[in-house]
Specification:
The complex is a heterodimer of chains A (114) and B (116). Chain A starts with a strand and ends with a strand. Chain A contains no helices and eleven strands. Chain A is mainly β. In chain A, strand 4 and strand 5 form a beta hairpin. Chain A is 0% helix and 54% strand. By secondary structure, chain B is an all-beta fold. In chain B, 0% of the residues lie in helices and 50% in strands. Chain B has no helices and eleven strands. In chain B, strands 2, 4, 5, 6, 9, 10 and 11 form a seven-stranded mixed beta sheet that branches. Chain B is globular, with a radius of gyration of 13 Å. Classes of the chains: A mainly beta (114), B mainly beta (116). At the A-B interface, strand 4, strand 5, strand 9 and strand 10 of A face strand 5 of B.
Chain lengths: 114, 116
């Protein structure tokens, strides 16, 4: 089983639609969670961190479900400019010490259609 | 403030050639890292550094060397290029490693490497 799994998509949605992505992780000791956005042929950029209580940033809502080991990203009122690949990121501090292990999912591609 | 700067943007190598990918950051980040991104594989960590003079291996270190003589620079060296190293390479930096809320990874704009 992969450490971090995402549905690769593509998700094709019309402008104005609401779309949700899930990301599952295998290690229950994982500590921090993020969503990054990557435009075609560009570098990844942080979209939002995911807090335990869930958090919202404008049209974007991120939630964490530790019991089921998944995080989600909800995008409301989709814009053409939201078309991108969304990467789920999970971090873990090894029991043996050392630096955090940062694991990226393979990404979910979103295409917003006019 | 340039952030993370990678050079070159594109490179074509022949099997067996060597080259160095450059990475520099001006944000005084302690943590720097190199990733490669391949279709269907996601971003995989090659090497990382938690400060000048300190480097360690990531998930896929074979065929690559790094050094960190200054806080700002973290070059990645391919000693003898192989077709399996054809990929997009990203350098990333952070204050603490990208795993702490509030301290995300900042990426350079990537190097597209083709080995023939």
């Amino acid at each position: 089983r992969k450490e971090v799994e995402q549905d690769p998509g593509p998700f094709n949605v019309p402008e104005g639609a609401t779309v949700a992505f899930n990301c599952t992780y295998s290690n229950s000791a994982s500590q921090s969670f993020f969503w990054y956005r990557q435009d075609c042929r560009k570098e990844p950029k942080l979209l939002m961190s995911v807090y335990s209580s869930g958090n919202e940033d404008g049209r974007f809502t991120a939630q964490l479900n530790r019991a089921s080991q998944y995080i989600s990203l909800l995008i409301r009122d989709s814009k053409l400019s939201d078309s991108a690949t969304y990467l789920c990121v999970v971090t873990l501090l090894p029991f043996s010490g050392g630096y955090q292990k940062v694991t990226f999912g393979t990404g979910t591609k979103l295409q917003v259609i006019p | 403030n340039a952030g993370v700067t990678q050079t070159p943007k594109f490179q074509v190598l022949k099997t067996g050639q060597s080259m160095t990918l450059q990475c520099a950051q001006d944000m005084n980040h302690e943590y720097m890292s190199w990733y490669r991104q391949d279709p269907g594989m996601g971003l995989r960590l090659i090497h990382y550094s938690v400060g000048a003079g300190i480097t360690d291996q990531g998930e896929v270190p074979n065929g690559y060397n790094v050094s960190r003589s200054t806080t700002e620079d973290f070059p990645l060296r391919l000693l003898s290029a192989a077709p399996s190293q054809t990929s997009v390479y990203f350098c990333a930096s952070s204050y603490t490693g990208g795993g702490i809320l509030g301290s995300p990874l900042h990426f350079g704009n990537g190097t597209r490497l083709t080995v023939t």
